[in-house]
Design a protein that fits this description.
Helices cover about 40% and strands about 15% of the residues.
């Protein structure tokens, strides 16, 4: 269980995708799925057993689905690349920023789920209902209070790269094709908007990004952050809030969370029908099922999520509700982020990544 510290509580760039990417990611399985009527569900939220759980539960509910998972930006690119020949039928897990891109390119189709009255539509697409909210998460910097006392943890994120005692002791995720690292980047640059600056950001903002990556320990592919925490390779790292409870159970950690004065980035995962699917009815059935209060409550209990569905939220783990409710939201202009994130990612990859 996490332990909240007392002292702190467009992507037009989603750059062009090669035809190879459009055909990768289990192409054979997808062809078979199309022939058999299997519903192809695209997501960037299939890790930690989520994909297997959803597949099993859908089977019990009488549906045959295949989960195809990719990182957020890569998945968005793939759907855009398949615009004229869609492979997927449903997409979920991407945040508002990615879904706004899909909406603008008309590769998702509006559908009002049976549970629409149980969620705040403002958290999704209030204008057109092209996508609907499922789960809200905070993107947080964590540490293990078993090895790092609360009194030793920094009060502000900037301390990680500006204070020598923390330098090299925090993990940085350099996989900027994924949603979470992009949200970290957006959080680093929030508040540093400058119309005369490089890509709309002041020099101070870019210095912050440079310092963050230069003084961190790059994530190790295939190695969980918490494995590194328990091996004393790093003391801090970033994770979506829903991943804390399961990792504390697995690794025996007691997670502390840094809560900066400016707040932390939040993400709301959405769901929608992919335009052009030949399985419109099955896609709608899946959305009605997966977003229902019953399934979202079970999903929340299994994966420590914070449902947007108000009925399901009452069944969420108390420690998850306590954590999310305790963390202030960082003020991020996601419209501005959406217009610039691809260029920010490119600049960061070229100039600042180790």
């Amino acid at each position: 269980m996490y332990k909240q510290p007392t002292k702190f509580a467009s992507i037009a760039a989603v750059i062009s995708l090669s035809l190879a990417l459009a055909s990768c990611g289990g192409g054979e399985g997808e062809a078979e799925g199309e022939a058999s009527g299997t519903l192809i569900v695209y997501t960037n939220s299939n890790s930690d057993g989520r994909g297997e759980w959803i597949t099993e539960q859908a089977t019990e509910a009488g549906m045959t689905i295949e989960i195809v998972g990719l990182g957020g930006a890569d998945l968005t690119n793939r759907i855009l690349a398949e615009k004229n020949n869609p492979v997927g039928d449903v997409v979920f897990g991407l945040n508002n920023m990615f879904f706004e891109t899909l909406k603008s390119e008309e590769v998702i189709t509006a559908y009002e789920p049976s549970w629409s009255g149980e969620v705040d539509q403002e958290s999704g697409d209030p204008d057109d209902g092209a996508f609907w909210p499922l789960v809200e998460q905070a993107i947080v910097t964590v540490y293990d209070t078993n090895t790092t006392p609360e009194s030793d943890a920094p009060e502000e994120l900037d301390d990680l790269w500006s204070d020598e005692q923390y330098q090299g002791r925090y993990e940085v995720n350099t996989a900027l094709g994924e949603a979470t690292p992009q949200l970290v980047l957006a959080g680093l640059l929030a508040g540093y908007e400058d119309p005369d600056g490089d890509l709309g950001i002041s020099d101070e903002g870019w210095t912050r990004v440079e310092s963050y990556f230069a003084n961190g320990s790059p994530a190790v592919e295939g190695t969980d952050l918490y494995a590194r925490l328990t091996r004393d390779e790093v003391d801090y790292g970033v994770i979506p809030s829903s991943g804390i409870t399961s990792r504390d159970a697995e690794y025996g950690t007691a997670t502390g969370v840094i809560s900066p004065e400016a707040g932390v980035p939040y993400v709301t995962e959405q769901i929608s029908v992919i335009t052009g699917t030949a399985k419109q009815d099955a896609a709608e059935e899946f959305i009605d099922w997966f977003g229902s209060s019953e399934v979202q409550a079970e999903f929340a209990a299994e994966f420590s999520s914070y449902p947007v569905n108000e009925t399901a939220r009452s069944e969420a783990l108390p420690e998850v509700i306590e954590l999310v409710d305790s963390l202030p939201k960082q003020d991020i202009d996601f419209g501005f982020v959406r217009e610039n994130i691809s260029q920010w990612v490119e600049k960061t990859e070229l100039e600042y990544l180790p």
